Amino acid sequence: VFIKANASMDSLVEKEVLEDASAFVNELEENSEFKTTSTRKKLVEQHHAWKEEAYKGMPNATGKDKVDKFGNIIRPKYVSNHTHYSPTDSDARVSVKPGKARQLNYFGQIAVDDAHHVITGACSDFADKRDSQCLEKIVELIEENLNENDIELEELLADGGYSSGEALAYLHKKNIDAYIPNFGQYKPEREGFTFNKEENYYQCTKPEGNQAKLLFKGEKTDSKGYTKRTYRSSESDCKNCPLREQCCGKSTKFKKLDDSIHKEHYDRMHQKLTQNAKYAKKMSRIRSKTVEPVIGTLVNFTNMKRVNTRGIKNANKHVLMASLTYNLKKYLRFTIKKPSVLAQVIS
């Protein structure tokens, strides 16, 4: 959940631009969060220019459009955490929810037990992170809190935002039985291809195809930082295939498939969720009715939606105090139901 930082969007200033990567490395140890490379700045500006053109003429989300003297809609300036920071609170990050305005936030993480809705772990993180990048931190906090009472964490429920190869690999290593829906781009199967796990290659199985083999060519990291395994056929195998243009494209002469290096973890989760779909849906409902009401209470009744201090450490204290208040109220209302015993004396 986003927590509004004690800083305004008007406080944002541009980071100092370093001309090349070597200069960035030299400055890495000294205030690197206030600097960026010229290459990254250029890429961000290109993306913002595309957004400005793509969104041109679209109505404002608030329904109150501001126009200039030529009648063009005035839109707020696009900013990025790569190129801007707030000197008021340098730990705050620009973030946005669908249908909401951009603002400087922190990222609250909450874990709740499904038996009594008690908060078992709480922390604050940087708002430019994804949920999956925060999972390891919150799990360690949960285990630390539970171990004090000789309780072990065996099962974990989370939404699809916590799905990533690194997160699933971490949970598998910790032997935690997790139920997390795979993210939208995951493909359990490749249509028209089968995977040979023993020899590590894909085989074309299309009836009209040439039955080409897509051999493993190595691992590469893309522009977004994801490392993938590449499988590719030879040009000779696809040269006379009647499906070449449909399968490979007009200009490409070979077929290429990319898999995440963590595909085995995604496959394991997919198999778990589909083998017993009824139980998986039950787990999803339990997650929704357990954590969502708690977050609503924290935001609306313990004032967690906004932090009045500055810095990530104080934001973390803010989340902890809100969670502590919630748990204390829960504890005060908690009663042990004693069984009523009817004693009868027979003479």
UniProtKB/TrEMBL annotation:
Superkingdom of the source? Bacteria
- Annotated Transposase DDE domain ranges read 207-331
A Pfam match is DDE_Tnp_1_6
Q: What protein am I looking at?
A: IS1182 family transposase
Q: Highest lineage ranks of the organism?
A: Bacteria, Pseudomonadati, Bacteroidota, Flavobacteriia, Flavobacteriales
